[in-house]
Design a protein that fits this description.
Blueprint (H helix, E strand, L loop, with lengths): L1 E5 L10 E5 L2 E3 L5 H14 L2 E5 L5 H15 L3 H4 L10 E3 L18 E5 L29 H26 L10 H5 L4 E7 L13 E4 L5 E6 L5 E4 L10 E3 L6 E5 L1 H6 L8 E4 L6 E8 L6 E2 L17 E2 H12 L3 H8 L1
Parallel strand pairs: 2-11, 3-4
Antiparallel strand pairs: 1-2, 4-12, 5-6, 6-7, 7-14, 8-13, 9-12, 9-14, 10-11, 10-13, 15-16
Helix pairs in contact: 1-4, 2-4
Length: 341
């Protein structure tokens, strides 16, 4: 992995900060062995990598960013009309999420918007957490907004499926291992639009755009603008922790592994700690969280255990695990009900 010091000193390139340039996985490459090798190296090293030539058009990605910005520019009163519900669909205001309570003085300095699997209210699945109809801004206020997001959602899933097949090969599994109905056959995927206002983070005083955390699921696809902010810590047990900026790469996805893949792989692959620091500029990003099916039983993969290396975690039903993680990090919705009453 290549590293260099950024000494530009401009608004988007933080001076004197170490910047990590990640391995690039080219989804158009015919050399699958090289792709597997590069991905495996990244998963063993830091759990982050770029994905390029992924097949999603530049026009669509730009349109999503444009529509993303239009929503967050709305007055707060309009955004609160589509406030996050108990199914985790809709708008999350500033400070709604607290990812690192031991080090933050308040919640994350960011706004968000959740979009999930579209399930009608009369569908039996809608009885489960995270399944149900989406919450959409009025088409009169944001014409074309819903259409853009509904186009992006399945295209991003196809990119994710291609990446996960390479991950399976890197774990000495069949390429279609994660395509099983109980894993990614009916995945619990969440798209989250994000805006970091022009706040300057101050870690010494517990102020962050997003506190230090690991993601929960299988993998995350992150599209970003050209503003620096994302940092990773390769060794979460080190004291003091060493943080490195991840350089934005136009047109690419930054992909990171989630806790479930670390659990599946018996800690062979890393779910890496990361955070976001604001530098005074507005920053927009689009996170696509690829989660297994709600009822998926996550247990150690057969290729990742042995008599000398037994499973480190007990089996867990993914939906139960995910629900608890969201409960631990998001404000109780009753707080908003009291404010609006």
């Amino acid at each position: 992995m290549e590293k260099k010091q950024s000494g530009t000193g401009n608004a988007t390139g933080p001076a004197t900060k170490e910047v990590s340039f990640l391995n690039r996985i080219d989804l158009s490459s015919p050399d699958i062995h090289q792709s597997v090798s590069l991905l495996k190296q990244a998963c063993l090293d830091c759990g982050f990598f770029y994905v390029i030539n992924h097949g999603m058009s530049e026009e669509l990605m730009e349109e999503v960013f444009e529509q993303n910005k239009k929503f967050f520019e709305l007055p707060l009163s309009e955004k609160m009309k589509v406030l996050r519900n108990e199914k985790h669909r809709g708008y999350t205001p500033l400070f709604d999420e607290l990812l690192d309570p031991d080090n933050q003085v308040h919640g994350d300095y960011k706004e968000g918007y959740y979009i999930g699997v579209e399930v009608p209210e009369d569908d039996p699945k809608a009885e489960k957490p995270f399944y149900g109809p989406n919450v959409w801004p009025s088409d009169d206020i944001l014409p074309g907004w819903r259409h853009t997001m509904e186009k992006y959602y399945p295209e991003a899933l196809e990119v994710a499926r291609a990446i996960v097949r390479i991950i399976a090969l890197a774990l000495d599994l069949e390429a279609d291992f994660f395509d099983k109905p109980e894993i990614l056959g009916q995945p619990l995927v969440l798209l989250r639009l994000l805006k970091y206002p022009g706040q300057i983070s101050d870690p010494s005083n517990g102020l962050y755009g997003a506190g230090a955390h690991t993601d929960y699921g299988l993998i995350t696809l992150l599209a970003t603008d050209d503003v620096y902010g994302l940092q990773i810590c390769k060794d979460k047990d080190a004291q003091p922790r060493v943080w490195e900026f991840i350089a934005p790469l136009k047109g690419a996805f930054i992909v990171n592994l989630g806790d479930m893949l670390e659990r599946w792989s018996n800690c062979l692959f890393k779910s890496t700690l990361h955070r976001v620091l604001g530098n005074g500029q507005e920053r927009y990003s689009i996170a696509y969280f690829v989660e297994p099916s709600y009822d998926c039983l996550v247990e150690c993969l057969p290729t990742c255990k042995s008599e000398k290396n037994p499973p480190k975690f007990p089996p867990v039903i993914y939906g139960d695990y995910l629900g608890q993680r969201y409960k631990d990090t998001h404000i109780d919705l009753n707080v908003y009900n009291k404010l609006q009453s």
